């Protein structure tokens, strides 16, 4: 992976809390989970066009605050209804304490 775009320092991320970033015109939810892993998934719920970064992080899931759909931070797959379409998952690289995301490609799961 090329480094992608620097979005923040890893120290700026709060554990189990999503942060919205926009790279070009691509909205992305960035999450540092309780194990310290950093994830980047599409920030728009596929059910209701709601920002997922305003939702709730639990384990390896991000829950839409509006309708309760949970998405896997690993695969982007919805884990319950009403959403049934996945959100994209983007490659993340940590370089010298900074978080880089490649918004031009999605991770192959």
Any key phrases for this structure?
3-stranded antiparallel β-sheet, mainly beta, Rieske Iron-sulfur Protein
Account of the 3D structure:
With 109 residues, the chain is mainly beta. It has one domain (5-101): Rieske [2Fe-2S] iron-sulphur domain (Rieske Iron-sulfur Protein, 3-layer Sandwich), CATH 2.102.10. It is built from no helices and 9 strands. The strands form 3 sheets. Strands 1-9-8 form a 3-stranded antiparallel sheet, with no helix packed on it. A 3-stranded antiparallel sheet has the order 2-3-4, with no helix packed on it. It starts with a strand and ends in an 8-residue tail after the last strand. The relative contact order is 0.25. The mean pLDDT is 94.
Write a brief structural summary.
This protein is mainly beta and 109 residues long. The protein has no helices and nine strands.
Topology summary:
Elements: E1 5-9, E2 18-23, E3 26-32, E4 38-42, E5 56-58, E6 61-63, E7 70-72, E8 92-95, E9 98-101
CATH fold assignment? Rieske Iron-sulfur Protein
Number of strands: 9
The ordered string of helix (H) and strand (E) elements is EEEEEEEEE
Chain-averaged pLDDT: 94
Main β-sheet: number of strands, strand sense, barrel status?
Answer: 3 strands, antiparallel
Q: Looking across the biggest beta sheet, what order are the strands in? A: 1-9-8
Count of the domains: 1
Termini, distance in Å? 15 Å
Which residues sit in consecutive blocks of at least 5 with pLDDT less than 50?
A: none
Second CATH tier, the architecture: 3-layer Sandwich
Percent in strands: 35-45%
What gross morphology would you assign? globular
- The class by helix and strand makeup works out as mainly beta
CATH homology superfamily: Rieske [2Fe-2S] iron-sulphur domain
CATH class call: Mainly Beta
Question: Please, how many helices?
Answer: 0
């Amino acid at each position: 992976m090329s480094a992608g775009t620097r979005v923040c320092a890893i120290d700026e991320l709060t554990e189990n809390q999503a942060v919205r970033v926009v790279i070009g015109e691509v909205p992305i939810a960035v999450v540092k989970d309780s194990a310290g892993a950093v994830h980047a998934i599409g920030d728009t719920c596929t059910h209701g066009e709601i920002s997922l970064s305003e939702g709730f992080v639990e384990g390896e899931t991000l829950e839409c605050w509006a309708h309760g759909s949970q998405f896997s931070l690993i695969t982007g797959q919805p884990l319950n209804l009403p959403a049934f379409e996945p959100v994209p998952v983007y490659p993340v690289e940590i370089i010298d304490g900074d978080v880089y995301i490649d918004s031009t490609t999605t991770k192959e799961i």
